[in-house]
Every structure is written in structure tokens, then in C-alpha cells.
Design brief:
Bound molecules: adenosine-5'-triphosphate
Largest sheet: 6 strands, mixed
Structural class: alpha/beta
Pfam family, one: ABC_tran
Family: Belongs to the ABC transporter superfamily.
Distance between the termini: 32 Å
Number of helices: 8
InterPro entries: AAA+_ATPase, ABC_transporter-like_ATP-bd, ABC_transporter_ATP-bind, P-loop_NTPase
Helix content: 25-40%
CATH class of the largest domain: Alpha Beta
Strand order of the largest sheet: 6-7-8-3-9-10
Number of domains: 2
CATH architecture of the largest domain: 3-Layer(aba) Sandwich
CATH superfamily of the largest domain: P-loop containing nucleotide triphosphate hydrolases
Keywords: ATP-binding, Nucleotide-binding, Transport
CATH topology of the largest domain: Rossmann fold
Radius of gyration: 18 Å
GO molecular function: ATP binding; ATP hydrolysis activity
Order of helices and strands: EEEHEEEHHHEHEHEEHH
């Protein structure tokens, strides 16, 4: 079967001032299956965002390529939704208008647009805030709105770069469960970058560990915990063992 996303020997160099070059990503290869949820961890600067931005079509590789359903990525596309740490909502639009935005741009009629928006607003638990403006929402609520907006346009792939990075621990855990619920209903392919080892294990079917200098794939750790994931699982010995393995791979790769 054709993988949904295929990174094929993807490298990216950046020019440094003074004529030098920096290898941010070195021959990164990875296949992500349809409906798979992978998490990506690694030390700061190991090329996580670089890899994701190349898959999003926001950045060009200097060597190699990324294929989506077998076709080379040449730029951004509606089949790939991107969510960043900073909730990029339109401040002058309500929650519902934000979620409807992509559908409006695509020319979808109002009634259908509203049905879809309301469904995703419900899935992320914002029904009571559909008429609210972003400035009246908490950080977690803004990020839930951003997730609903990304899902509404029906992308096959969600690329999420530390979407919960700016949130407090409790909100983060709540949003992790909500994201998994949405994912289990919609089964999009998700690539999720995080600095949080617990988050990587809790969400991912596989944890992709990257290493720095140069940025590269270090290890792929399968997470042998069934979905749906539960709060009890976080306390299990199996979870602890996985967390330790990921932690060692990220912070003490020589001992992993
Ligand atoms: N536009 C750029 N010009 C020069 N260097 C860059 C550029 N973008 C990224 N880099 C460098 O490439 C390396 C990888 O950056 P990237 O943002 O992909 O890392 P990351 O793993 O996502 O880091 P973090 O976890 O800190 O967000 C870093 O050392 C960064 O300084």
C-alpha cells in the first residue's frame, strides 16, 4: 500500500552568515501510514520543525523529497492541515466563523458550512462558545478552535508542531484526550511534534526520536498500548517503561 506520507532521504541545509552552512536535517527517511498517529520528539534544534515544514510544503528540501499518496510535495495543499503552537485565529471572527473560514474560501454554501463547523466545534467541546471572539477564550480554547478549523476542511493529514506547548499541564492532558477522540472518529493521519515525552507516548502509535547535529532520525519506538488510551494507562508499568525508553533515547542516546 502507498504510504500516506513518505520522507525519502530528505536533507535541508541553511546558509549561515559569513558563508558557512548548517545541516538542519540529514537524509531523513520515514513512512507514515494512512490513519496513523505518529509523534516526533528530540532535543531542541534536531530538525523536527524543519521536517514538518517540508512535508507541509512551506520549506523546500535541499535534497530528497516528500511524497503524499505517492505524489511529490511542491507546496502547501488543502489535504495537509497545519497547526502551530501559536493559535493563528482571525481575531475579528467568532469561533464558528474561524472554523467555517476554509469552507467559505472553498465556496461551500452557508448551510452546509455551518453544519460542518458546528460538528467540529462540538467535537472539541466549544459549542457554548461558537459566537465568542478569540480574545475572550483561554489558550486551550483557542487551540481547540484551531484544531476544529483544521479538521473542518477535511484534510487527509494533520501536521501539528507543538500545538499544546504553550498550555498548562492540566489543559494539555484534557486536549490530548480530546484530540485522540477526534482522531479515533476521523482517522486522519497525524504527525505531532512535542517536547513532552509523556505526551509523545500517550498519543503516538509510534514515537519518532530525532537526534541533533546534524538533525536526523535516531530511533522509531512502537507504542504497544491499545487505543483508546486512558488515564489509567498513564500510570501503568508498560507506559513507564515506554516513557523511560523514549527519555533515554532523547536525552541519553549513548545509553539507549
Ligand atoms: N531559516 C533558517 N535559517 C537558518 N537556520 C535555521 C533556519 N530554520 C531552522 N534553522 C536551524 O535548523 C536547526 C533545526 O531547526 P528546527 O526548528 O527544525 O528544530 P526543532 O527540532 O524543531 O527545534 P525546537 O525543538 O527547538 O523547536 C536549528 O539549529 C535551527 O537553528
Amino acid at each position: 500500500m502507498t504510504p500516506r506520507i513518505s520522507f525519502q532521504n530528505v536533507s535541508r541545509r541553511f546558509e549561515l552568515g559569513g558563508g558557512g552552512e548548517f545541516l538542519a536535517l540529514d537524509r531523513f527517511s520515514l513512512e507514515v501510514g494512512e490513519g496513523e498517529f505518529i509523534t516526533v520528539v528530540g532535543p531542541s534544534g534536531c530538525g523536527k520543525s524543519t521536517a514538518m515544514n517540508i512535508a507541509a510544503g512551506l520549506l523546500r528540501p535541499t535534497a530528497g523529497r516528500v511524497l503524499v499518496d505517492g505524489a511529490a510535495v511542491e507546496g502547501p495543499g488543502p489535504e495537509r492541515g497545519v497547526i502551530f503552537q501559536q493559535y493563528a485565529l482571525f481575531p475579528w471572527l467568532t469561533v464558528r466563523e474561524n472554523v467555517e473560514f476554509g469552507l467559505r474560501v472553498a465556496g461551500m454554501p452557508g448551510k452546509r458550512r455551518r453544519e460542518i463547523a458546528d460538528r467540529f466545534i462540538g467535537l472539541v467541546g466549544l459549542t457554548d462558545f461558537a459566537e465568542a471572539l478569540p480574545k475572550t477564550l483561554s489558550g486551550g480554547m483557542k487551540q481547540r478552535c484551531a484544531i476544529a478549523r483544521a479538521y473542518a476542511v477535511d484534510p487527509k493529514i494533520l501536521l501539528m508542531d507543538e500545538p499544546f506547548g504553550a498550555l498548562d499541564a492540566l489543559t494539555r492532558v484534557t486536549l490530548q484526550d480530546q484530540l485522540l477522540r477526534t482522531w479515533s472518529q476521523e482517522r486522519r493521519t497525524v504527525m505531532f511534534i512535542t517536547h513532552d515525552v509523556d505526551e509523545a507516548v500517550y498519543l503516538g502509535g509510534r514515537v519518532i526520536v530525532m537526534a541533533a547535529r546534524p538533525g536526523r532520525l535516531y530511533k522509531v519506538i512502537p507504542v504497544d498500548l491499545p487505543y483508546p488510551r486512558t488515564e489509567e494507562m498513564r500510570l501503568s508499568t508498560a507506559f513507564a517503561a515506554l516513557r523511560n525508553e523514549v527519555w533515554r533515547s532523547v536525552y541519553h542516546p549513548e545509553a539507549a
